[in-house]
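Tutorial handout. Part one gives the primary structure; part two gives the three-dimensional structure as tokens.
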Amino acid sequence: MADGYRDLKHPPQLMTETNERPDQTRAPQGRQRARRADVHIAREALKVAKPANEQIGPWQERAARLFALAQRGQIRGKQDPSTAAEARALLEAVTRRRLDLQQSIETLPVAVARSSRLDDTVKALDSITNVLERAISLSAGPTG
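Part two.
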């Protein structure tokens, strides 16, 4: 290199007036504030969704297991009433949690209420509800 920095692994970089490298300068205030607002909205939405989110994984597992048991019972022609009873009890818990979440969402500022985090939580609860309703339907047998 003709600039005399051949032996250096990292040649020196230009510094700005504030002794910061150009790539380390701060984002313009407007963008920074917008980013902070987005982070605040996401955090507030997460606080509201957290109780439901903590239950979604275990509920999905139970719902899938109950659906598989109901399918197996239908194939064998032997419905197990305990499968339907457990699915109904879980469906009641999921429905109650979704209602609580929906009521909480209604009290939030519009920007937080529209958060995709909350939408995803509601969709997950609805998905569990659908699986449980199908399990109950299968468990009820052909006359159900």
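Part three, for discussion. The helical segments are 29-76, 81-106, 110-113, 116-140. The mean pLDDT is 84.
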